[in-house]
Amino acid sequence: MSEKSSDRSSVAETEAEIRYYGQKLNELRSRALEDPEGFWAEVAENLTWFKRWDKILEWNPPFARWFVGGVLNASYNALDVNLKRGLKNKVAIFWEGEEGITRTITYYQLWREVNKFANVLKKLGVKKGDRVSIYLPMIPELPIAMLACARIGALHSVVFSGFSASALADRINDAEAKVLITADGLYRRGKVIPLKKSADEALGMSKSVEKVVVVKRIGLEDTPMKEGRDYWWDDLMKEAEPYCPPEPVEATDPLFILYTSGTTGKPKGVVHSTGGYLVWVWATLKWAFNPTPDDIWWCTADIGWITGHSYIVYGPLLHGLTQIMYDGAPDYPAPDRWWELVEKYGVTIFYTAPTAIRMHMKFGEKWAKKHDLSSLRILGTVGEPINPEAWRWYHEVIGGGRCPIIDTWWQTETGGFMISPAAIDLVPLKAGSATFPLPGVHAEVVDEDGNPVKPFERGYLVLLAPWPGMLMTLWRDPERYRDVYWSKFQPNESLEFKIKPPAIYYTGDYAMKDEEGYFWLMGRADDVIKVAGHRIGTAELESAFVSHPAVAEAAVIGKPDPIKGESIVAFLILKSGYEPSDELRDELRMHIRKTIGPVATPEAIFFVSSLPKTRSGKIMRRLLKAVVSGSKLGDVTTLEDASSIEEAKRAVEMLRKAMGEKS
Ligand code: WTA
Fold first, then answer.
1. CA 417 to ligand 1 center in whole angstroms
2. Which of 280, 384, 433 to mutate to test the pocket of ligand 1 (most atoms within 8 A of CB)?
3. For 336-390, how does the pLDDT look when each residue is reduced to its tens digit (9 = 90+)?
4. Buried b (16+ CB within 10 A) or exposed e, 2-34
5. Type and span of the H or E element at 83
6. 451 C-alpha vs ligand 1 centroid, how far in Å?
7. Which of 35, 209, 579, 594 is deepest in the core (most CB within 10 A)?
8. Do 345 and 312 meet the contact criterion of CB atoms below 8 Å apart?
9. How far is the C-alpha of 621 from the C-alpha of 534, rounded, in Å?
10. How far is the CA of 311 from the centre of ligand 1 (A)?
């Protein structure tokens, strides 16, 4: 990397550098704006199309159809194309299990497995357009199952294996999945978790699933298998035909559904298209990380989240990269497990989350120092704002001061990176800023009325134009799609934008721009919490709490946490007949783990007798947040019953005291 990649201080040094983008990106950006047909056609040529599109974009706000008339297949692009260009024997995946076993899978082998499993799915009755739920740990069968769905034009709906049975059931039911793919169990920090048992529990709550395929990850003796419904993966694969022709799929047909949290209790089924999504993932990976054929890519995310979909499964395979896939905890058996893998495989591009970086900071640099990390050339982060201290540690201790940090801002809904430094043309980096929007992205920071804010003023991050990777809709809920993303800001003549958008996409994030136009992301503006980078809705948590017989009302907030970014704090009103106690607190904690999953384990639970609400009955979480973090309360004029704030404060004080006494 050139000297450009180093961490320069916040002020650009020369006049020439004070511009919105690096020159090359600037050109791409103007082309994307002025000649979208030409620009996107050129980008889309990097994929293989069975039939070229007739029209780049059909935009009926808020519904966009990209590459209309184009026909392609995602698995063909991720696999067959690589075989054709001489990568047959290239390693696609170096896989490591937590317990120390390894698997090496070439592009040819991956292609074979995907073809066979596609035939398995067909035999199980899966057809184009059907939904397949996948509930697997980070084993190669997970991308194989996803690509097999893509091969036959079925939609995959991957559910994070850390989610509970009832979270899985909700997602299966909403998608009306016909088949579920799961495993007997998984390892986490040396412990075995019997995944099939959760899957069975979920299946007890759903009707749509006809067949279940079970991967033997552990070899658990007592895995329950239901005759006629459940099949072992290996048994089915033994009999499968080796080749499955890729189904021609319209660019505007959905590729997958991925559920994510929003501001209501019901998870949203984000639907991504085939053509636009793949073009976006291809392009953003190229721009932001500029990978070469020799790179060893490692994205540490779980495929259960969008980051894994886009930058473990589709992006790296479209680019024919070799990557690491690790099924285990970053600190097991010791805190240097990741660094050991970086050294072992000579990882060159490493992409992780700020929460992981902060965890490693806490372990101390001695663990990284034990290993030769000199192969690394680019680092990346995603999932939440990275604090400058963690940025610097990452840059110095992991990157040896050589590697640029590609801080990628994006969302499940955007499909791929939106605001991010671009390795093809780096601008001077600033610790904690995602720098500028990528080509084709028109981001602005606006006030409550939708007008651009001044530099350094916090506002809402909005997107002013459709982009190929955008979600198509929410699964079977176009009204909610319109409501959640496109209704907060109405375009009108008085808005002071450079372009006049017919519709404005609301990201739900706070952001600001500095005097040079760099974007600084400042966390969620809505009721979504980011716990260790995982997206969890407060409403989802609240409805999980009130589903317990003891709880009458619940308010949940995110509290700043030095490692996890945010942690979950709950204020609960108990039903009469129930008394606050430590036992009840533990029981409720378990209840949440069971209803949502261990990622949602609350850090603190406060029992209160009232909650601060507006006159219209909305819980003022902002106030609870202020109380918990000890900051100013701000405007309380809309508060119905001021005593509830005093009470919340008292409850917090009591708990703080109690926690202090315990420790
Ligand atoms: C947050 C993850 C600051 C943001 C890809 C966004 C970030 C939400 C960054 C989406 C970043 C993601 N800097 N904040 N680089 N990346 N976020 O859907 O609040 O799990 O709205 O997608 O994560 O979370 P999601």
1. 10
2. 384
3. 999 999 999 999 999 999 999 999 999 999 999 999 999 999 999 999 999 999 9
4. eeebbbeebebeeeeeeeebbeebeebbebbee
5. helix 81-84
6. 23
7. 209
8. no
9. 20
10. 14
